[in-house]
Amino acid sequence: MLPTIDLGPVDLQTFGLSFALAFVASGLLLSKRLKEIGRPVDWAYEIVFAGLLGGLIGSRLDYILQNWETASQDLLGSLLSGSGLVWFGGLVGGAIGVLLWARWRGFLGLTLLDVASVPLAMGYAIGRIGCQLSGDGDYGVASDLPWAMPYPDGVLPTTDFVHPAPIYESLAMGLIALGLWSLRDKLAPGRLFALYLVLAGIERFLIEFVRRNEAVFVGLTFAQLLSVLMVVAGGLWLARGAGPRPAAS
């Protein structure tokens, strides 16, 4: 585990570094794809900034709502704190930020969704590397598999041998990103994003079986319920007419 990198007077948080790297990598992928489809490359930086700003606001608001009893005692401090970033709130806030940007730029449509698919998957894969390095509690339940490991020096330490769930997710979402990238010009508009929803939903649904999150409904965790919605939405979208991209006339 390496939660921090000591540089003398400055301590760098490896989770924060991975978070930043995820946005940089996403920006590079966006710029390459925007160039391929004849859109301004500079839009990549705008999209990343809109997603980052919206994600930070959404994740903080989600955290405050989930921890209102304690957060309300220092509302401004809770809002400006660097801790307590909630994934779902960040996802919703980031999506809203990008959609507002797209409306401003006149880029609101299926092409935007397809363009975002690969960066979403790759950014998630890189972000999970930060979870692994920091040992922030996203590891799984106890396991006796050969690759199970403890997190004694993590932010939320454990000496038990557990599933290294962040590694599973980084590998799975990295492969999904590569697969989606290879299909970026082979599917009809919107279908790449629909496929992302299905694959990302399946990945998160399965990984929850080895994570430590509590069930909230019919034996499923909150993340699994969201994953089911993603798979159903993406599956129905694909079923409506999945197929190869129409040939140019």
For the record, give the distance between the C-alpha atoms at the N and C termini, rounded to a whole number.
Answer: 55 Å
Provide the structure class: mainly alpha
Query: How many strand elements?
Result: 6
Q: Report low-confidence residues grouped into runs of 5 or more.
A: none
User: Major sheet: order of its strands?
Assistant: 1-2
**What form results from the Cα inertia axes?**
globular
Give the proportion of residues in helices: 55-70%
What integer value in Å does the Rg equal? 19 Å
Largest sheet: 2 strands, antiparallel
Q: Write the element-wise H/E pattern from the N-terminal end onward.
A: EEHHHHHHEEHHEEH
Q: Helical segment tally?
A: 9
Mean pLDDT comes to 87
Number of domains: 1
Percent of residues in beta strands? 5-15%
Which keywords apply here?
62% helix, 9 helices, mainly alpha, single chain, 249 residues, 6 strands, two-stranded antiparallel sheet, two-stranded antiparallel ribbon
Structural commentary:
With 249 residues, the chain is mostly helical. Helices cover 62% and strands 8% of the residues. The protein has one domain. The strands form three sheets. Strands 1-2 form a two-stranded antiparallel sheet.
Concise structural overview:
The protein is mainly alpha-helical and 249 residues long. It contains 9 helices and 6 strands, in the order ββααααααββααββα.
